[in-house]
Design goal:
The protein has 158 residues and is of the alpha+beta class. The protein contains 5 helices and 4 strands; from the N terminus they run ααααββββα. The protein has 2 domains: 30 residues; 118 residues, Roll (Nuclear Transport Factor 2, Chain: A), CATH 3.10.450. A 4-stranded antiparallel sheet has the order 1-2-3-4.
Length: 158
């Protein structure tokens, strides 16, 4: 109980300090949309880019990330590890989804370009699958990313 009160008091102080300084309040709102979904017939590069940033550039909860992945909960470990390591998120890294693209009714491909300070840009040919009306990162694309980055994760969520 005391710990909860201390946390609440700390948040009040942070919000008050933020209001005085004009800086945005810490923890005012999450930096991700928990309801994010790509539901259009053809995903745009902007949609795909936002999805990748949600996966590897935010601290979104597992259930939010699982909803973006063909492998669901089994596959969350990959983007979660990439986020924790901080490879492709500011301030030292970034990612951008670009073409060339291909499109079929339930399959779409594009290129994920990921970079981090002091290292060359990595390009991953990625695939998305349309499952239950939502575009999700295909498990084989996660496996390609895991292999490319040399992460110690078994690719058994396909």
């Amino acid at each position: 109980m005391f710990k909860q009160m201390a946390v609440a008091a700390g948040m009040v102080v942070a919000v008050a300090a933020s209001a005085i300084s004009g800086a945005p309040a810490a923890h005012a709102a999450p930096d991700f949309d928990e309801n994010f979904a790509i539901t259009s017939d053809v995903p745009t590069l902007s949609d795909l880019d936002a999805q990748i940033r949600l996966l590897v550039g935010t601290p979104a909860p597992d259930w939010v990330k699982a909803a973006q992945l063909e492998g669901g909960n089994r596959a969350v470990i990959a983007p979660k590890m990439v986020y924790r390591i901080g490879f492709f998120r500011p301030p030292r890294g970034s990612s951008l989804v670009t073409g060339p693209e291909t499109h079929e009714p339930d399959r779409h491909t594009a290129v994920i370009n990921a970079s981090r300070q002091g290292a060359p840009t990595i390009q991953i040919n990625a695939e998305w699958r349309r499952i239950d009306g939502r575009w999700k990162v295909a498990s084989k694309s996660l496996c390609n990313g895991i292999k490319t980055l040399g992460l110690p994760i078994p690719c058994n969520f396909g």
